[in-house]
Amino acid sequence: MTRKFNFSAGPAALPDEVLQQAQRDLCDWQGKGLSIMEMSHRSDEFVSVAQQAEQDLRDLMSIPDHYKVLFLQGGASSQFAMLPMNLLRGKQTADYINTGIWSKKAIAEASRYCTVNIAATTEAEHFLRAPTPAEIQLSPDAAYLHYTSNETIGGVEFNYIPDSGSVPLIVDMSSDILSGPIDVSRFGVIYAGAQKNIGPAGLTVVIVREDLLGHTLAGTPTMYDYKVHAEGESMHNTPPTFAWYLSGLVFDWLKRQGGVAAMAEVNQRKAAKLYAAIDRSDFYANPVAIDSRSGMNVPFTLADAALDKLFLQQAEAAGLLNLKGHRSVGGMRASIYNAVPEAAVDALLTFMSEFETQHG
Ligand code: PMP
């Protein structure tokens, strides 16, 4: 098996061990003579897999008992609509922090259901930093405050949890969930598409405080009602069973690595050495303010964009995959989620240094 180093932003790298386990399980799960994909979601076997995955996620994130964990479909993008539908609770306004492309999408969708107040934005500075706590202006009548803890495309991450005052704090944690410890009790809702730092595409994890359930906007589709999924243990309809199972293997792997605190240490080392190499050189650059730099997605440009294609070709030949930046910003982006080992970052640094020597 030749596994290369994969810096994809999502769907992203999965741990080798997890894929190997899935391969062993694929045709015959635990001697049952069938695949986990071929079982009823209501079978004892699948229910035990599903419950173990939830328990492991609860352990990893220290999720308090008064939060429900939902395993849904529809991607983080469906949450952009589900949030106002479930959380406006009779109010007409919601506060949103705008830090880039993903916050903007959340704002656009929420604007279909309520008046969005932009509580803070760094758009005038091209989204090259997160706002400071002092810049966040809450409106008096908002139902909640929403922010994006890590802008996957811009590579901008909050290094603090915003204060939402007396209203629930909602976070799109798609690209930095499980990258380190967080205090779940600060949040009303945490949501994340799985395909970056959790597991394969097709699963969306929603962690919601129980008292927020049951106040949906009139006309909300049944499938968009958190309470329906909470009461049905995420089995109101057929859940994405394979993605749920595989995410469970990732949670188990994370526990064996020492949990999110241990991951945070490795993640900090990986990010620190990559940013240090970029900052040391005149050939590579990252424009994001130092205190807002993402620990997960590291965009960088070459001094001469005409070399981008060659960089990507040679990187691929060196076994370093998916370094192309998002089409909206160009340049490069190295996504260094939990499943990207430190050895991958070391190999990238060696390649970058050699490329600079040749072309700098
Ligand atoms: N939010 C963030 C921060 C993302 O990075 C993404 C996906 N790149 C999304 C939302 C949308 O996720 P999905 O494709 O699962 O709808």
From TrEMBL:
Gene name, Swiss-Prot/TrEMBL: serC
Family in the record: Belongs to the class-V pyridoxal-phosphate-dependent aminotransferase family. SerC subfamily.
Pathway: Amino-acid biosynthesis; L-serine biosynthesis; L-serine from 3-phospho-D-glycerate: step 2/3; Cofactor biosynthesis; pyridoxine 5'-phosphate biosynthesis; pyridoxine 5'-phosphate from D-erythrose 4-phosphate: step 3/5
Assembly mode: Homodimer.
Main location (coarse class): cytoplasm
Matches recorded under SUPFAM superfamilies: PLP-dependent transferases
Enzyme class of the recorded protein, top EC level: transferase
Catalysed reaction equations from the record: 4-(phosphooxy)-L-threonine + 2-oxoglutarate = (R)-3-hydroxy-2-oxo-4-phosphooxybutanoate + L-glutamate; O-phospho-L-serine + 2-oxoglutarate = 3-phosphooxypyruvate + L-glutamate
Cofactor note: Binds 1 pyridoxal phosphate per subunit.
PANTHER family: PHOSPHOSERINE AMINOTRANSFERASE
Residues annotated as binding L-glutamate: R42
Function of the molecule: Catalyzes the reversible conversion of 3-phosphohydroxypyruvate to phosphoserine and of 3-hydroxy-2-oxo-4-phosphonooxybutanoate to phosphohydroxythreonine.
Domain of life: Bacteria
UniProt cross-references to NCBIfam families, sorted A to Z: PRK05355.1, serC_1
GO biological process: L-serine biosynthetic process; pyridoxine biosynthetic process
InterPro entries assigned: Aminotrans_V_dom, Aminotrans_V_PyrdxlP_BS, Pser_aminoTfrase, PyrdxlP-dep_Trfase, PyrdxlP-dep_Trfase_major, PyrdxlP-dep_Trfase_small
Organism lineage: Bacteria, Pseudomonadati, Pseudomonadota, Gammaproteobacteria, Oceanospirillales
Name used for this protein in its record: Phosphoserine aminotransferase
Gene3D superfamilies: Aspartate Aminotransferase, domain 1, Type I PLP-dependent aspartate aminotransferase-like (Major domain)
Record organism: Nitrincola iocasae
N6-(pyridoxal phosphate)lysine, modified sites: K196
